Amino acid sequence: MQRYSALGLVTQAVRHNENWQRVWRNPTPKKHYDIIVVGGGGHGLATAYYLAKLHGVTNVAVVEKGYLGGGNTGRNTTIVRSNYLWDEAAHLYEHAMKLWEGLSQDLNYNVMFSQRGVLNLGHTLQDMRDIQRRVNANRLNGIDSEVLDTKQVQELVPIMDCSANSRYPILGASWQPRAGVARHDAVAWGYARAADALGVDLLQQTEVVDMIIEEGAVKGVRTERYGDLYADRVGCVVAGNSGVLAKMAGFKLPLESHPLQALVSQPIKPVLDTVVMSNHVHGYVSQSDKGDLVIGAGIDSYNGYGQRGSFPTIEHTLQAIIELFPIFSRVRMNRQWGGIVDTCPDACPIISKTPVRNLFFNCGWGTGGFKATTGSGHVFAASLAKGEMHPLAEPFSMFRFHSGALVDEHGAAGVAH
Ligand code: FAD
Ligand code: PYC
């Protein structure tokens, strides 16, 4: 497992701040871009970076209503894994994983990708059957994945209550050793800095309020800050706001927006050097390099746009985490927050053309899109540059909801829906 010194962390924080200042001032926008990317989260910034770097398309603007990385990218619990059940999803997430493995070098920016392994716990016989099936499918796809029994889980996480009489007995787990965590704001800033250096315009505090559409084709976007900005193609990567943008373009997406919450504790000495997830009891936990316990919940069951979430959900999660880790019962919470995730009926993303020509959408990542940031940006950039969907994106067309060819990943979503 990669570890960082205190001095290294301070140096990194100073560099982050310098880079933040550097990208903060908006450039003067051009009137016409080859491609406009709406949404300056990780996926939008990665898309812009790969457009410039791999496809030579530098006349690109990223239009962001708030600040870069201030949406779900800066609100997630940073778990990266690729152990999905179905081939379509497994190929996409493993593509992303391979890019993660070289990302710090590629961006020349330490995104603190730490492959400390992820456990998905099983608490019932059916959980264990599902785990066995998913691990077999992963291995057939060349993805590192193992089934562990209770004793092996206990060896990996000595502080967890793996006793037979615990409230949620642990029968075993799936284990992906190459999985892990990364520093989410560094991912946004790393991509932003690299895209900026290649000539991409990053326009912050610039909300898209309408689409400019003529004769069935998108011509640009309307913003409050800069008026109309024109482009040959527009890619929308706005996560929980995708339904709002689709409405501007005159169509509906099969998405629901839900709050998803997380919290961090006060920093404590190192006690947990892997990631533990339990879909069954609705909670997961890791420990950041700063020492905070990073804890997340299942989605709030109601729809909403409030970036905070409801108390019963987080209370339920903490009850479950404390049952699993009685040692955490005296640790104090430091901060709690929510993000707005856009969930599709099959718990898979939409990376797609739309009924409007030259308008593309990348959304529906729901509770699990941080891990996909690299791969999503990579395939979306190729699709926008060529005007044709990348082969890895094809199964995730929005038109699958007409054909019925869904890719159901509820079981591997890792977070309770
Ligand atoms: P965002 O980062 O949300 O970016 C979209 C951007 O679009 C925002 O910055 C927003 O301001 C902007 N925008 C919206 N409307 C407009 C407009 N009209 N004009 C201009 N800009 C606009 N995934 C994992 O893989 N692992 C995890 O551990 C994990 N944990 C999570 C925990 C929580 C609490 C949450 C909320 C999510 C978690 N996720 C996780 C999911 C993950 O965060 C998201 O799937 C991912 O970050 C989506 O990235 P994005 O770039 O598409 O969206
Ligand atoms: O998809 O692995 C995941 C995840 C973990 C926490 C939230 N999403």
Give me the CATH architecture of the largest domain, please.
Answer: 3-Layer(bba) Sandwich
CATH class of the largest domain: Alpha Beta
Provide the structure class. alpha/beta
What bound compounds does this protein have?
Answer: flavin-adenine dinucleotide, pyrrole-2-carboxylate
Instruction: Please provide the ordered H/E string of secondary-structure elements.
Output: HEHEEHHEHEHEEHEEEEHEEEEHEEEHH
CATH H-tier superfamily of the largest domain: FAD/NAD(P)-binding domain
Report the end-to-end length measured between terminal Cα atoms: 31 Å
Low-pLDDT parts are none
Strand content range: 15-25%
User: What is the number of independent domains?
Assistant: 2
At CATH level 3, the topology of the largest domain is FAD/NAD(P)-binding domain
**Extended strand count:** 18
Q: Major beta sheet, specifics?
A: 8 strands, mixed
Features:
417 residues, alpha/beta, FAD/NAD(P)-binding domain, D-Amino Acid Oxidase, Chain A, domain 2, 2 domains, eight-stranded mixed beta sheet, 11 helices, binds flavin-adenine dinucleotide, binds pyrrole-2-carboxylate
Describe this structure in words.
The protein is α/β, with parallel strands linked by helices and 417 residues long. It folds into 2 domains: 6-78 and 184-255 and 345-403, 3-Layer(bba) Sandwich (FAD/NAD(P)-binding domain), CATH 3.50.50; 115-179 and 257-343, D-Amino Acid Oxidase, subunit A, domain 2 (D-Amino Acid Oxidase, Chain A, domain 2, 2-Layer Sandwich), CATH 3.30.9.10. 31% of the residues lie in helices and 24% in strands. The chain is built from 11 helices and 18 strands. The protein has helices at residues 6-24, 42-55, 87-101, 103-107, 125-140, 150-156, 184-197, 242-249, 311-324, 373-386, 400-403; strands at residues 32-38, 60-63, 79-80, 118-122, 146-149, 172-176, 180-181, 201-203, 208-214, 217-223, 227-236, 256-265, 275-278, 283-287, 293-299, 333-343, 350-353, 359-363. The strands form 3 sheets. Strands 1, 2, 8, 9, 10, 11, 17 and 18 form an 8-stranded mixed beta sheet that branches. β1 (32-38), α2 (42-55) and β2 (60-63) form a beta-alpha-beta unit. α2 (42-55) packs parallel to α7 (184-197), α2 packs across α10 (373-386) and α3 packs across α10. The two termini are 31 Å apart. The model has no long low-confidence stretch (mean pLDDT 94). Residues 38-44, 63-66, 70-73, 75-79, 207-208, 237-239, 241, 245, 260-262, 296, 339, 341, 365, 367-371 line the site of flavin-adenine dinucleotide. Residues 38-44, 63-66, 70-73, 75-79, 207-208, 237-239, 241, 245, 260-262, 296, 339, 341, 365, 367-371 line the site of flavin-adenine dinucleotide (FAD).
